[in-house]
Design a protein that fits this description.
Chain lengths: 344, 344, 344, 344
């Protein structure tokens, strides 16, 4: 059994980790931490877990965490970098669902996250957690920086085009829509049902923290710095991200886009390239670890439109983290992740 | 492996059966029928099933259904009674998620369902599918009439009080709220998002088809005919039933309600009696087969208030049907049913 | 023009007052206060008001408020009683949308609101703001305690039955459902879209602050103390209250319920008794000051079921307050209140 | 008083016309037609209209319609062109909310709408109903083809940039999101709450009927044929359209975008250019005739992002039609259209 610790168990990615791990045959959750809820049983706080976990929140304690085989950080940025170094030093594997180790250029990270990084050396060591890009590196890594939710949906949609060099890398547009759970479980007026339901809006148009992360990933795929406009939107639903991606074909007569995508992801257990002409719905992945993608070329013009959907809490966070754990511990990659999306 | 057939696979209870059975280790779905969708792959119609089923809808064919070990009817009333007799004659087990065999008094059934019953003899033979009431009879039955959604939530909430004879059986009130999926997948104006979201209303106050079913079950539990007022309401959400139940204590000084409920359901795998003072949320059972119940006595007055929540498509329909199948085939009762509710 | 002041303009009842008063031909809003938002233009905080108000929030200042003809308090309990006395002394009319002056028995108020009342004398002077009950007293009052949202829907539904003495006053049940806006604009986890959408739950079953208010009103109507069980529920929508009310007929043969209700409210501009057999939807009053009611007698049994719907922010709060202002200033009662509900 | 007739009163744009006209001081609705609901009172079908209209649906009758001053067609394409010619011949003004007269190139119209046009001559005579573009022509027109919902939001957002010639007209992208009411009141599975809530998807990527309409309007503004990629999305809410528009600046150093937009719409009663950096929410226009716009230049790059929101049933349909009627009858342009958006 894999002994698991979770730091920051009271947010949405924390409870989602518990939901998924509850049905993982090879995992035992040993520790779950929360400063604010110390002593509270997780099943009292999250009644959906009643009968699945007999575990209470404890304050973070490196001694106890160090006895786990792997520790997940489901925390705001800044927390993982404060605890990871000692866990790493003691040989514990660390999977950070937060942003601390995602950006290789520490100066860029500090600029966007408005704090100084306390362990830049680990940034270099960390492996970016997107199995469809670097499965092998993940399998042998000790520290993982899981891809963010928008970055997962956006990169999986753009990768085939950029790797094949088919589109103008200087002018990529990612118009992304996220459910409100992406804003987390913190009490904020903007996330109230009365403020965010029956409405739709863009936010962070001037600049969102996922922009540098997406740009870094796409530039690696393109082999050169890409130009990207990223506009996130708040959608009146709980879960789901829909990325609508626009790129300009260099060769307007190219016809093989469907095949390109199908072949790129032919062996990926969690990327589903849908038939030509499909419009993936976010609900088709609700609660599941799947990313569904379709590629279009409206009016046979030279603009390619890629539609990519994920559940921001699963493939965009906790499910991807479990997929990564499976790779790190040589388990079947889909173990504990075969749940069918809830539809309706 | 249990060879399963499903008649009427295009409605919400049909696709929910597929979602649940996809992860049942001992089940193989052999046949799924739909007159309207003949030849369509189930995964093309319900993309959440992509990668889980390689199966297409066929027109109902008794020959093919007769080769299954069990056939589920996820159909409107009137369908099961037309096909069940021959399947029963051939030794196939039949689990009807519809209403054809729920009411023992055929005249009452015909009065509420506005059609004549074509096999009243089978009504007598059919076992009412509510494991918490008649688990043994279910295990040895060949024909099951699964309890309806409102009837499941309402009976599980009232049973302890009526079996113990603690309340006035002549004046029971069930104020029930259901998500829109209870209205099914048929295209009707009333179920449009624009008609049913951001609004709340009662319906069928004059009389709802679940009234005689609930009354029959409660009268059996009370040992005498009960008086029941049942008011269903349409709630702006997809899944979930919340039953708010009112009864009058005969003995106002009685104090043991919490214990009564806890003991009644102590050994039930899918009934969760919550701590005193709890308010179960429907989302805490979304996608799971659990019924969560709490019992209250406001102001220490003589009115008992019971709160009972289920997912109408799971414990109220398809999950309960699989729980019943497990009993009929001597499988662990919770096999394939351990999914954790999706929250948030 | 009526010079209006609003204390507490940043909550939902405050912005709703502004929305309604923006189209009131005889009103000029002179002052709107908020300690937290001092100096912010109301139109910057609430963009729906852009172009309608050129007004900024100021800190509460009795001098400025005293120059208004009427001051609305759209504040949590405890605020109005701290400022009202001086305004009353200076001849300003005060309309409190909060709870400070609703309960005549100060000891009961202090018990439920957990604070001591600072001006019990004004409680005696205050007129309860429910025009359908005491229109004349309102017209000549200087201090109004507006009825709460649940109390408005519940009292309007029960009044005809109690005033006529047709039902058992000892066992009344009010099963009420409210949209999330009833919880206010404060940032709380429970009101997040991710916590309150796609779910339904009861709350405050042990005792809700509107219970004594409703009980007081119904006891006045019945001429004797009533017994009431009140169970509020949180519904996944922004606006609307649906009260489902249960009472037992003393004379089971009584047939004139529809006529009784129609006559009771025949001359009420904002109470719509719907045709027999109707099921009012909350959306049919969304944004309007109307209360729609239907009365049922299921199965011709002796239980009466009354369905009553309002918009909690309009007839349940700000609209009712404007209706009351019109009465106090001898304006047409429906002036500025003729907006049609938004449907869909 | 303006005598109004409405053809096709049972759809969402029809009931929305009634909601708006109910408070228009100079309008009397004389006739409202519906073949399916003949004889039904509008207030029985739409309870929000109870007390506002004493009018029943009748079958379309040219004689009766010809006695009106103006007839609105709130009908699917194909209906207006069958009745308009005779009404026009009799001197009645016609405002078509549908698509019959929007596309000047009849061949293009027939290609997209899959039917032959029965009065191409009237297409030439018809004035496109977008007051911000051709107010004067509207005032003197007899036949108006109201702009569609997506076309209104998209054109108002792009116009200042194209009229000023600041952007590359060959590569415009309109990523648009609409509430479900845009799909109309017809009973279709895709518009059920259970199918369209808690989900987000694109549709019609290969080609949507509003594409040629938008392209026609933008080409007129640019003075040359534009290249446009238009991707509509279905959003889980009732009302609202959010257009996110992308264009490439020819001159990357241009800085005056905010001023450009502010001046272009300085005298428009229903276009609100928001402060720099704003993110308009669709709810800020819910139920109102306003279009709110903000313009951004992320990272000071050469991609301009325009955000434009409307209520698809008001400024996108019925409100715009009333605004146009006011212009045609020399009434104040905002008469009957000053309602404040419902927020929350």
């Amino acid at each position: 059994m894999i002994k698991v610790g979770i730091v920051g168990g009271t947010g949405y990615t924390g409870v989602e980790l518990l939901r998924i791990l509850a049905n993982h045959p090879q995992v035992k959750v040993e520790v779950i931490t929360s400063r604010s809820e110390e002593g509270i049983a997780v099943a009292d706080m999250f009644p959906n877990l009643r009968g699945h976990f007999d575990l209470a929140f404890t304050v973070p304690d490196v001694e106890r965490l160090a006895q786990c085989d792997v520790v997940f950080f489901a925390t705001p940025h800044g927390v993982a970098m404060s605890l990871a170094p000692e866990l790493i030093a003691r040989g514990v594997k660390v999977i950070d669902l937060g942003a601390d180790f995602r950006i290789k250029d520490v100066a860029v990270w500090e600029d966007w996250y408005k704090m100084s990084h306390t362990c830049p050396d680990l940034v270099a060591q960390a492996v970016y957690g997107l199995p469809e890009v670097n499965r092998e590196a993940i399998a042998s890594a000790q520290l993982i920086a899981c891809a963010g939710c928008y970055p997962t949906a956006t990169q999986l949609g753009f990768l085939p085009l950029l790797e094949a060099g088919l589109v103008d890398h200087r002018r990529l547009i990612a118009d992304c829509k996220s459910g409100v759970s992406g804003a987390g479980r913190g009490a904020s007026v903007g996330s109230l049902l009365c403020e965010s339901s029956e409405s739709f809006k863009a936010y962070g148009v001037a600049g969102h923290r996922h922009l540098p992360e997406i740009r870094q990933g796409l530039s690696l795929a393109a082999g050169k710095p890409v130009g990207l406009t990223f506009v996130p939107h708040l959608t009146p639903m709980i879960r789901g991200i829909h990325a609508t991606l626009y790129a300009t074909l260099k060769d307007p007569v190219d016809q093989g886009l469907q095949t390109l995508f199908a072949e790129r992801y032919a062996h990926e257990p969690f990327v589903d390239v849908m038939p030509a002409g499909s419009h993936p719905e976010t609900r088709s992945v609700k609660g599941s670890n799947v990313c569904r993608i379709s590629v279009h070329r409206p009016q046979n013009d030279d603009t390619v439109v890629v539609l990519s959907v994920i559940d921001n809490l699963v493939k965009g966070a906790s499910g991807q983290a479990v997929q990564i754990m499976n790779l790190m511990f040589e388990r079947p990659e889909n173990e504990g992740l075969q749940q069918v999306a809830l539809m309706p």
